[in-house]
Write a structure and sequence with these properties.
Strands 6, 7, 8, 9, 10, 11, 14, 18, 23 and 24 form a ten-stranded parallel β-sheet that branches. Strands 1, 2, 3, 4, 5, 19, 20, 21 and 22 form a nine-stranded mixed β-sheet that branches. With 547 residues, the chain is α/β, with parallel strands linked by helices. The longest helix has 16 residues. Strand 23, helix 17 and strand 24 form a beta-alpha-beta unit. The protein has a single domain, classed as TIM Barrel (Alpha-Beta Barrel), CATH 3.20.20.140. Helix 5 crosses helix 7 and helix 9 runs parallel beside helix 11. It has 17 helices and 24 strands.
Length: 547
């Protein structure tokens, strides 16, 4: 079918487009303007046309996500769903995730924490998310097999082979390390870990583990840089951990997860206000400017009840004291560990207000929106459905001033947000939510509207009320098929899970089989993600490595 989206303001920063024009679609792809009469014409007059949104970091599947639903069933209550989809709008369900992303114009979402030991269950949950393409990042950095190899000094080739095999076997899209060595150290009684602290038993450090993974990711050609969750998340002085980790990358590609939770500078410890921290957003953005090898997603805080989900068991154990309501769950698994801790970001609380301000600061101070990705670290900073409101605040200083006027004075005393005049343009919003994340993940077929791209397209009614505009897309196409009209789902379809196309060395397969049999009495087959487990015959789609 030949489709013409006609007369809309087409915003595609990758092609330098920000003007009224047309977008042509055929057989699920963006095509050049055609001389043929289209089978369907969409009148987009008065609308903004963008590529479908791409989410790089959102906890939408996995064991801790399931645990959060069990721990806080009241948080996941929502309205009833259309006939035939009884759980489509149950908060947190796969259908709810897919529907709410799609209504905002998003067409791809990535789960950033895929434990290899729990890969099949995580992939089954991802497959339950309709409408979107999705993927997940395989977690390494605390597992005994990798730490043994590093402790024994077996060299870069052995680490590379294990990383390559792990990504392939878990069917991941990339690699993430979470407080590298932290889970292992926690099991030996360590409650705080910095970049060069020794990890008991292994005699390693976070720096050594992360450096080995950085090298392996580069040598394998993983399109997405190593996705790093640093030490000391959420603590005053976490900015030191961020900057020292950035320096430790030594020019290699690196991506920082939820940077807002590291943009906390130390203040006078005698002053208990806001937990003793101030904004370090300026320091973080200056460091990023000096290191073009790095990217980060924001982890913007939004006000209200949420639940924190993380495989960083060391930090979740510490965070349990702030649980609201007072219940939490931790698990100390063999390779990782993790925890679920409910949290309330108080609308007029000093700490929450300052966190809210710091995330906006990071984006508004950034000189390169394509390296600055909008996330809330869903659900850790708040639910992803708040993206439209965040976009509104970025695009309107007046709207920010109205919000700041309702908040404690600490926002102005310990952050520069009230003095920032910048307002994001639509093109910069597209970089923040489309082209930047797609480029970061190595997904060259989306995030833009150039000829040959997937026909993942979002059409919005242009409005100065950016919250309303981006909350309910007028039209969303996925692979050229209409899935949303006027903010409502019109067709439920099955997306695909994106996995990295990597080959595995036969020697590491044998070694991993022997290791698992010795440790668990079960081999690789017990941790596999077979095609036969999925009802759709084409559940997975390969993504090529870098040349």
């Amino acid at each position: 079918m030949l489709i013409r989206i006609q007369g809309g303001r087409v915003v595609d920063p990758t092609d330098g487009r920000d003007a009224v024009g047309d977008v042509w679609i055929e057989n699920g792809k963006i095509v050049a303007p055609s001389e043929h009469t289209p089978d369907r014409t969409v009148d987009a007059t008065g609308c903004v046309v963008m590529a479908g949104g791409v989410e790089v970091h959102s906890h939408i599947a996995g064991g801790n996500v399931v645990m959060s639903r069990l721990l806080l069933p009241d948080l996941y209550v929502s309205e009833s769903a259309p006939n035939g989809h009884p759980f489509a709008h149950a908060g947190g369900s796969g259908s709810w995730v897919g529907a709410n992303y799609a209504k905002m114009g998003y067409t791809t979402a990535v789960e950033p924490a895929l434990p290899p030991s729990n890969a099949l269950a995580t992939h089954l949950e991802l497959a339950d998310i309709p409408l979107l393409d999705r993927g997940a990042l395989a977690v390494l950095g605390n597992d005994d097999h990798l730490l043994q190899i590093l402790r024994d000094g077996e060299g870069k080739a052995a680490v590379r082979d294990l990383v390559q095999h792990t990504v392939a076997h878990a069917r991941g899209l990339g690699v993430k390390c979470i407080n590298a060595g932290g889970a292992s150290a926690f099991k030996d009684g360590v409650l705080k870990l910095s970049l060069d602290d020794e990890i008991p038993v292994y005699g390693l450090s976070t720096r050594k583990i992360m450096t080995a993974l950085l090298d392996a990711v580069e040598e394998i050609g993983v399109p997405h840089p190593l996705h790093v969750h640093c030490n000391n998340l959420g603590l005053p002085g976490a900015d030191d951990s961020f900057v020292s980790t950035l320096d430790a990358a030594e020019g290699r590609r690196i991506h920082f997860a939820h940077a807002q939770f590291y943009a906390y500078g130390v203040v006078d410890k005698e002053n208990p206000l806001t937990g003793g921290f101030r904004s370090a957003a300026e320091r973080i953005t200056e460091a990023m400017e000096a290191h073009p090898n790095a990217t980060f997603d924001v982890g913007q805080v939004v006000f209200g009840q949420t639940v924190t989900i993380s495989l960083d068991i060391l930090r979740q154990f510490a965070g349990r004291k702030g649980a609201n309501p007072k219940k939490w769950a931790l698990s100390a698994g063999d390779a990782e560990g993790g925890g679920v801790v409910p949290f309330l970001y108080k609308p007029r609380g000093g700490v929450s207000s300052l966190q809210w301000a710091i995330g906006l600061e990071l984006m508004l101070l950034s000189k390169d929106p394509e390296r600055t990705i909008l996330t809330t670290d869903h659900p850790n900073g708040g639910v992803f459905t708040e993206y439209p409101r965040i976009i509104h605040l970025l695009m309107s200083r007046e709207e920010r001033e109205k919000e700041i006027a309702t908040l404690p004075s600490v926002v102005g005393e310990r952050s520069s947000l009230p003095t920032i005049e910048r307002e994001y343009t639509l093109s910069e919003i597209a970089q923040l939510t489309r082209s930047g994340p797609a480029k970061l993940l190595g997904l060259t077929d989306r995030g833009h509207l150039r000829v040959g791209a997937k026909a993942d397209v979002a059409v919005y009614r242009d409005s100065t009320d950016r919250t309303a505009m981006f909350s309910r897309a007028r039209l969303v196409l996925k692979d050229g098929e209409t899935i949303v009209e006027d903010g409502e789902i019109t067709a439920w379809r099955h997306g695909r899970t994106l996995e990295l196309d990597v080959e595995t060395d036969s020697a590491i397969v044998k070694r991993s089989e022997a290791y698992l049999q010795d440790r668990y009495g079960q081999g690789l087959d017990s941790f596999a993600v077979p095609d036969a487990a999925f009802p759709e015959t084409e559940n997975f789609e390969d993504v090529a490595c870098r040349a």
